[in-house]
Amino acid sequence: MRIKERIAGLDWNTIQQSLEEQGFAKVPVILDKEQCHEIMNTYEEDRLFRSTINMARYRFGVGEYKYYQDPIPELLQHLREGFYPELAKTANYWNERLGLEGSYPAELPEFLKQCYQQGQKRSTPLILKYEEGGYNCLHQDLYGDVFFPFQVVFALNQKEVDYTGGEFLLVEQRPRAQSRGNVITIEQGAGFIFPTNHRPFKGARGYYRTTLRHGVSTITSGTRYTLGIIFHDAK
Ligand SMILES: O=C(O)CCC(=O)C(=O)O
Ligand SMILES: [Fe+2]
User: Which GO molecular function entries does the Swiss-Prot or TrEMBL record give (predicted)?
Assistant: First the structure.
């Protein structure tokens, strides 16, 4: 089955309900092993990337990631275009709840036009590689004024087989309260949808905004590869 059909065939009611209630959602395995390997194999093909970041150099953590160059590989393009429309529905719902102006266009190309108009012209999908001792500090991936409120990460290899440790971390900071941490393990080929910046949280007197940061715990052995799909482009 083609990837776009697989995305369309996901149980979006359940995913959207999870986003509503928890702010995040697991995506079942959607990339087969062959596709995971195809993506991991791109890692060594320099011509596919616009930049490589050594995380330790910026004190982002320990590991390396590379941003794909436009035009990004077809499979990634299909993932980015395929996930966008359903997530845009929840994104617009969130805007209403937070009393924010404006809405996200129904399809990705329209949204990317808005990024472009704000000078955000560089592609942001990325592949990350961590070796033993590697980790990713809690952070956000905002690259300008325009941002999409969700992003998706896919695990390209398998925990307990290819690496140990390396759980995905999501920390939610509530106003005037202590932060809550979530630890997520993502199966090979599966994904995880999480908020880029904020989410509406139902309190006693209506909705308020929490702030989210994500990262990765220390890889205790082996090598961990992930694919990050960020919908907004960068300055
Ligand atoms: O490697 C990971 O799981 C974290 C990836 C990440 O930071 C991202 O996709 O933005
Ligand atoms: Fe990130």
Answer: metal ion binding; oxidoreductase activity
69-77 contacts at long range (C-beta below 8 A, 24 or more positions apart)? 69/123, 70/122, 70/123, 72/123, 72/125, 73/39, 73/42, 73/48, 75/3, 75/35, 75/38, 75/39, 76/39, 76/125, 76/227, 76/229
* Ligand lying nearest the CA atom of residue 126: 1
214, 217, 219, 232, best to mutate for ligand 1 pocket (most atoms within 8 Å of CB): 214
Q: Note the ligand closest to the C-alpha atom of 224.
A: 1
168 CA closest ligand 1 atom index: 3
The tens place of each residue's pLDDT in the chain, 235 residues long, gives 699 999 999 999 999 999 999 999 999 999 999 999 999 999 999 999 999 999 999 999 999 999 999 999 999 999 999 999 999 999 999 999 999 989 999 999 999 999 999 999 999 999 999 999 999 999 999 999 999 999 999 999 999 999 999 999 999 999 999 999 999 999 999 999 999 999 999 988 889 999 999 999 999 999 999 999 999 999 9
Binding site membership of 65 for ligand 1 (Cβ less than 6 Å): no
Q: Which among 40, 216, 230 is the best mutation to test ligand 1's pocket, defined by most ligand atoms within 8 Å of the CB?
A: 216
> Cβ of 149: how many Cβ atoms within 10 Å?
26
Fold of the CATH domain 3-230: Jelly Rolls (2.60.120)
Question: What's the rounded Cα separation, in Å, for the pair 159 and 222?
Answer: 9
ipTM for the complex shown = 0.99
